[in-house]
Amino acid sequence: MVKRVLRARVFIWLALPFFASGCITPVEYGDVRHIDYIDNARCQPEAKSDGTFIDQPYFVVTSRLPDCRTERVTLLNHRSDIIRYGRFAAPQEMAVTSAKGKTKNVTAIPFSLSNNQQWWDDLSREAQQHDGRILLYVHGFKETFFTSARDSAQISRLSGLDIPMVHYSWPSQGALLKYATDETNMYYNERQFRGFLTRLAQQPWTKEIILVAHSLGARLVIPAVEFVDRNSSSEDSSNISNIILASPDVDRQDFERDIAETVLTTRRVNNDRRITVYASAKDRALGASYNIHGYPRLGRPDCFDPFEAAALKEKGLPERCYASKTKYDTPPEKSGLTIIDTTEVSRGRTGHSDYLTSAAACTDFMAIINGERNRTTGREETRLSHVFALSPVPKDKRPDDSIVCRRDRN
């Protein structure tokens, strides 16, 4: 408890200058009427011939407001009341012309809006060519379309799967001090995302959805999966079978209380539904979220109960507390929940994206995407049967994180 109070005081002390200087401000409407951004035929594209998007292999669904004033359509941080569909490619050097007519070379995401029906037809064709499997990514806090699309392309490369990559992009503000705005926009997107996920899951050609959510995006994903499950016409598990939550900014107790009754019921687990959570005690972003919300996050193993922490310390164990394994009246034949602790292999200043920055975490993440349910390589058992820790690697034998995680653009 003392540590938590000290963390809270440090957080408040660090945040005071921002509050005092007025850096935390409401979202500005801007100098352009929102209707003027979309008042162009580019925002309502017609169906085009096959091969139009051959250089933009990835699919995107977005609730961001597009700027269609110039030939190169971009996605803004404002929210839209409808979702739109498009295609994109990995980041590359491009000559970009602004709305004021100025051109400069920048690293950008090649992006095009797509006709809605054409988008679904294209996805259907590609999915059927790859056994009906689809990889769907939902980003988290502090992302722009550029950063989240870049991560989507990296996840596709890292997976090694030749299946359609779909990215759901909601209007995160891409700014550290806009967390409250991101939370607001995330909740505003619940209806839009669950509608899209329901439609995707109900397509006759969709056989398996591998669903990856990062950070705040996990709060979009879990209730949406619950909604799809409730409205599934099939008596068996829905085809959302492999759910991966990376650094989830989710109330851990809320997850524990509800998950067994909804997403991980015995029937769904026995039909191969599983959830893998990546968590780290070095995740500073979720440490701040803990201080803001008052309760531990699913993606960070803080101990809320000081007596539990003291008992672990007395046994010589790390003071780390995790979401408990779900309880069933009739236990399933398989294991539905697995938690991977990346603390010892954490990378980056915040430790909030180990699955894309740490070689050990990337390797494990890649295996889970590929369906290795009973993976043991690189993992160490812990005091809990459903929790594993990734083994630290000596500095002299540490692999190149960038190469292993395939952070290159090509």
TrEMBL record:
Name the UniProt record assigns to this protein: Alpha/beta hydrolase
Record's signal peptide: 1-20
InterPro entries named among the record's database cross-references: AB_hydrolase_fold, DUF900_hydrolase
Pfam families: DUF900
Keyword Hydrolase included in the entry's annotation: yes
Alphabetized PANTHER family for the sequence: ABC TRANSMEMBRANE TYPE-1 DOMAIN-CONTAINING PROTEIN (PTHR36513), TRANSMEMBRANE PROTEIN (PTHR36513:SF1)
Gene Ontology molecular-function annotations: hydrolase activity
Keywords annotated in UniProt: Hydrolase, Signal
